[in-house]
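Changelog-linked ticket: nickel (II) ion example.
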Amino acid sequence: MAVLDVVLYPDAPLRDVATPYTKMGAELSQLTQDMIETMHAHDGVGLAGPQIGVAKRIFVLQEPDKEPMCFINPEILESEGEVFAEEGCLSMPRVYGQVPRATRVRVKALDASGTPFEVDALDFFARIIQHENDHLDGIMFPERMDILSREDIYRQWDDMRESILSHREL
Ligand code: NI
């Protein structure tokens, strides 16, 4: 297992549309384990392929006090309701904003062994799924906000990114 480097916005491939994941078996199992370990190392609740430089349709997530889950080639089948809550992103660390999301989504995907499943997700669980699924379409959370809030978040992130990168170089 390995903790992978997390790509910071706006570096590639964060703004690209990811392609379907096709390599099942041992390679997938290694990738999902590394993604889960990386998510834990950064105290995250979700991590998508593009965030570790893999432009494939795969993400992992973990709700507090639950087991980690893997979603491969996910598809949101239904969504309903809307609620605002705070979100952050491991690709824009230490910047947070209020983001509107559906309160319930129904999703189908493959799990880490390549087996299809469907799940009804509510509230925080549904929010993580929507945030991570957006990464697969090159969408960062500020793009779900109104334009003024979005510009404010990107301004905050510009400063934060500069500060993070300058500390890395020391
Ligand atoms: Ni994110």
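Closing comment: Example verified and attached. The mean pLDDT is 96. The helical segments are 26-41, 123-136, 147-169.
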